[in-house]
Design a protein that fits this description.
Helix content is about 35%, strand content about 20%. The chain is α/β, with parallel strands linked by helices. The longest helix is centred in the middle third of the chain and has 19 residues. The chain is elongated.
């Protein structure tokens, strides 16, 4: 995808001031990682009289398919070839809009400390997009950009094939905009209208997209004659969100017509009373799900294996039904922070008697961890190298053998819903892997079969109908009548059939199992 921004200047107001406004030096070529590829910013020309900044986005189509799991334009599950053969690497779309927020964030927000006075000035701009999908053709392009103050909106339809004009035009146009606008206003218009013309976003449209639309549309969207079409397409025709956006835009229009602040018009609710439901952080939802599962299991003596900085231990201490809580972590620094968080040095004797923090490696057996009602491995397994998972498995399920084991881990399928997460990246730099739902369930079922446990799966966080929840949790319950020593399970630890790489890598031989038991 390609986009250029050009301006002209004079010796008093040189065109190269564009570099200050975009926060990109004209003498440098810069590269940025984006959600689905790599963005390059460079200047084909930079002089006092004329300056052009170019944004080139290289999309990784394979990563796009993997992150999207075949959803979205050209990627339906029943169109496998279309997942890989499509226009997304070449034609301007929401991918380019997201890249603009990464590369030109300060310019979009109208921020320039070096030249704050230039931010508010009207610049002679020429913006060109050589390949722009336009579902609605040239006419719609002119309807969308025409009312926004551009002196010239030059949209030329691209023929399907220049050698066969009888085939007609494609749905792509070459767009050139000319006029005097503030740079921030021009960028915001492009940010909204590029995906509107394409009419297909590459990521899941969540409620926060309404706020993004209103921020980018400030000053022009409320009065735009095609407001409803823009709002509907930008929000992927999610009618609830569209209605919400339209209502808020109407408030903006009323406020502007009476020269009032929006807050003074929308004053039906007392600001001192917080009636808006705030989103619950995923970490908090995860702890709530773990506590609910522990209560349902009737656990009172709990191990928090890989307790980190003690957030779960702190939550467990607030519930008196958990009479003994042991936090284990290999990091002394994390345990020190956990001790400070819990205020162990100032805790009452009775409360302090309920909690113990211990240093220990989870890949080694420890007799002192036997006999507990439940063990929790919250966001732990993905921090281990895959070949070490069998040792962890035996230490917990074969040696300690609590009645209940809870394991939570990220669902890599959900990563596509975070547009700011670069393609192919895991959620945390220390994650050695992240599993799909099927990979996690396959591993969990094999563990349960080897060690005499039953297993159930619980979604944590919003359960997306396409990609599942952000966090997946397995609840292991030890089957009645199994040998509590785990000898049978221990002898079989690590036997895995050939399958996906995510589960196959953890294979252990019987010799390795004996070594793990001996440790």
């Amino acid at each position: 995808m390609f986009l250029t921004i050009s301006t002209t200047g004079t010796p008093e107001r040189p065109a190269t001031d564009l570099g200050f406004l975009l926060h990109k030096h004209p003498e440098k070529a810069q590269t940025f990682s984006t959600s689905h590829g790599t963005a390059h910013v460079f200047y084909p020309e930079a002089s006092v009289e004329r300056c052009t900044a170019a944004l080139l986005l290289e999309v990784d189509p394979v990563a796009l398919v993997r992150r999207g799991k075949g959803k979205g334009r050209g990627g339906a599950p029943d169109a496998a070839l279309a997942q890989y053969v499509n226009d997304r690497p070449y034609a301007a779309s929401s991918l380019l809009s997201v890249a603009m927020t990464t590369v030109f964030k300060s310019a979009l927000n109208g921020v320039c400390r070096a030249m704050p006075e230039r931010v508010q000035e009207l610049l002679p701009l020429r913006i060109e997009v050589p390949a722009l999908p336009a579902r609605g053709g040239v006419e719609l392009v002119e309807k969308l950009f025409g009312p926004l103050g551009w002196r010239s909106v030059d949209a030329v339809a691209v023929p399907l094939d220049g050698k066969f004009p009888e085939w007609g035009d494609s749905r792509y146009v070459r767009l050139a905009l000319e006029g005097e606008l503030r740079l921030a206003d021009a960028l915001r218009q492009l940010y909204v209208l590029l995906p509107v013309l394409d009419d297909a976003k590459h990521y899941w449209v969540a409620p926060d997209e309404v706020d993004k639309l209103l921020r980018a549309g400030e000053g022009w969207l409320a009065e735009h004659p095609e407001q409803r079409l823009i709002t509907s397409r930008y929000l992927s025709r999610r009618w609830g969100l569209t209605r919400q956006a339209m209502e808020r835009l109407e408030l903006v229009r009323l406020a502007e017509s009476d020269d009032l602040e929006v807050e003074s018009v929308d004053n039906a609710v007392d600001e001192t009373t917080d009636t808006e439901e705030k989103p619950v952080p995923l970490a908090e939802q995860r702890r709530a799900a773990i506590l609910e599962a522990l209560r349902a299991a009737g656990a009172s003596r709990v191990l928090d294996l890989g307790c980190g900085q003690g957030q779960l231990v702190q939550a467990l201490l607030k519930d008196v039904r958990f009479t003994e809580i042991v936090g284990v972590d290999v990091s002394m620094r994390a345990l020190t922070i956990a001790s400070r968080r819990l205020k162990l040095d100032r805790m009452g004797e009775r409360q302090a008697g309920r909690v113990t923090l211990r240093q220990g490696a989870l890949t080694y057996t420890d007799k002192q961890l036997k006999g507990y009602d439940a063990a929790v491995l919250s966001e732990v397994i993905e921090h281990l190298d895959l070949p070490r998972l069998p040792a962890l498995e035996y230490a917990v399920f074969g040696s300690a053998r609590p009645q209940t084991v809870l394991v939570t881990t990220p669902n890599v399928e959900y990563n596509v819903r975070w547009e700011t997460l670069p393609a192919g990246h895991v959620r945390h730099g220390d994650h050695r892997f992240e599993w799909t739902r099927e990979e996690f369930r396959s591993w969990a079922r094999q563990v349960s079969e080897r060690h005499g446990y039953g297993v159930a799966f619980v979604p944590v966080g919003p359960d997306d109908p396409e990609v599942g929840p952000p966090t997946q949790m397995a609840v292991f319950t030890r089957s009645a009548g199994k040998d509590a020593t785990g000898e049978k399970a221990g002898a079989e630890t690590g036997r895995m059939t050939d399958g996906k790489a995510g589960t196959e890598t953890g294979r252990m031989t019987d010799e390795k199992t004996k070594e793990a038991k001996a440790a």
